[in-house]
Design brief:
The chain is α/β, with parallel strands linked by helices. Helix content is 44%, strand content 16%. The longest helix is centred in the middle third of the chain and has 26 residues.
């Protein structure tokens, strides 16, 4: 008989799953036995991740959608509820950087888009999937943050404030669900990682000087498999 995997029979959903940390995490979850729902805007990029998962012997379903459209999130949650009994792992990874600029120069429309994806969309996803998370014997919610969410840095006001608010939001959700003992919330700061967002923020940086997304995915998988309390923050070091 084949050896059992740690996430056999589990259902996971990963946002921002088309590349970077999201794609690497989706592939790691699938390799551990989970069926993974891949969420991002670009269908072709999701299909590439889906192909890699299936080629490695895993299983996945792609769900192309715009996370800033709350109606689409609701429809996805309804579709998932029709097919599956519960949701066991939710990875909130999708985010946008926006412009790095002084606070007085932040463009209001762009700031609204940053908050819309980095904060408001995550609340909408939690709200839509909370009933399915509560039907799991033990569910894990992982939100990706950044050091600038807790350590203010010049020119990072828009992005940093969106991550600071996300951390507070997830901390509140952890506190609200702690009594049940069935949902654990993890706030993960990936640290310096070779991603497209990192390249946009630090265009002159050598890619090999920072860790690959797979290192963060491994840390997240280890976190899910560990006996840790809800609401804790993890920073992934090199």
């Amino acid at each position: 008989m084949p050896k059992a995997k740690s996430l056999d029979g589990k259902l996971a959903l990963v946002t921002g799953a088309s590349r970077g940390i999201g794609a690497a995490t989706a592939e790691a979850l699938a390799a551990a036995g989970a069926h993974v729902i891949l969420v991002a805007r670009t269908a072709s990029a999701l299909e590439a991740v889906d192909d890699r998962i299936h080629d490695a012997g895993g299983s996945a379903t792609i769900a192309p959608l715009d996370l800033t459209d709350s109606e689409s999130i609701g429809k996805l949650a309804a579709a998932v509820a029709e097919r599956w009994q519960s949701l066991d792992v939710l990875i909130l990874n999708a985010a946008m950087l926006g412009s790095l600029t002084p606070v007085e120069h932040i463009d209001a429309k762009e700031y609204a888009r940053v908050l819309g994806l980095n904060l408001i969309a995550n609340q909408a996803v939690i709200a839509a999937f909370d009933p399915l998370l509560k039907k799991s014997a033990r569910a894990d919610v992982v939100a990706l943050t950044s050091s600038v969410g807790s350590e203010p840095r010049a020119f990072w006001g828009a992005y940093g404030s969106s991550k600071a608010a996300l951390e507070i939001l997830l901390g509140a959700y952890a506190d609200e669900t702690q009594h049940s003992g069935r949902i654990r919330v993890h706030i993960v700061d990936p640290g310096a990682t070779h991603t497209r967002m990192r390249q946009l923020a630090f265009p002159g940086e050598e890619p090999d000087s920072v860790k690959p997304p797979e290192a963060v995915a491994t840390a997240i998988l280890q976190r899910l498999q560990s006996d840790v309390p809800t609401g804790e923050k993890l920073r992934v070091e090199a």
